[in-house]
Amino acid sequence: MKNNIMRLTIFCFGCFLLSCTQSKYAATNKSYKKQVKTYARLLMQYPLQDSTGLPYAKNWVGTTNMSVRRANFVIIHHTAQNSCEQTLKTFTTPKAEVSAHYVICKDGTVHHILNDMLRAHHAGVSKWGNTTDLNSASIGIELDNNGFEPFTDVQIQSLLTLLERLKKAFRIPTANFIGHGDIAPRRKVDPNWRFPWQLLAQNGFGLWYDANSNVQLPENFDPVQALRIIGYDIKDTAAAMGAFKRHFFQDTTKQALNADQLKILYSLSKKYE
Prior knowledge:
By secondary structure, the protein is α/β, with parallel strands linked by helices. The chain has two domains: 69-208, Lysozyme-like, CATH 3.40.80.10; 209-273, no CATH class. It has helices at 2-24, 26-43, 84-91, 134-137, 153-170, 180-183, 197-202, 223-230, 237-249, 259-272; strands spanning 73-78, 102-104, 110-112, 138-143, 177-179. A five-stranded mixed sheet has the order 3-2-4-1-5, with helices on both faces. Helix 8 (223-230) runs parallel beside helix 10 (259-272).
């Protein structure tokens, strides 16, 4: 009897804790569902409504061949805040107007806060190759990190597990796992230089270079054009070069690339062609 009472007490206490966790974001969860229903109603409009005055056919025809948005990139961020809770509060505050699909806490807990098929507000003004609206083409992942600290092992392990699922689900190319600082080098530096890009590449998420000192640079090698081939926006060459150094060398200095680094840049550009 005592054991049964104890089990019941623990169960009730667990339910209480769960209800507290759920109720904390009850209002914003309700807002989420309301927005999704609004989008659903828009998609269900037929015939399609507009006011352009075009000579539309009298009988509406709806195609049977359609699909929802499929991301082609994964953009990795650090939150630049001091806790997961602070980030979740920011992402559930309408005035902030920022969001992501996932938040991964220092203890490895993953918050999936937006359906992968929907467009999050995480990339901002950005460019990678010919893609200028990264929000519409990507999934955003935020790692709980204030920008001045290492990432935890369990956090990175959760990230790797998530990336594996996303890569398979959306057939995302290996080269298309990149950082916020890569797509917005003039504005952002996240994830910070401590982020283990090489480890990710070893697991199939992002490209990496081969340490080969026998690489010969062409006489006409142009490092700026090599950055463009990789995907960087070269309107601000200094910013693009800084982002490249931070990503591949964990180098935050403003010094020019040395001879070995130029060879690596050349080798990488050949991989991205």
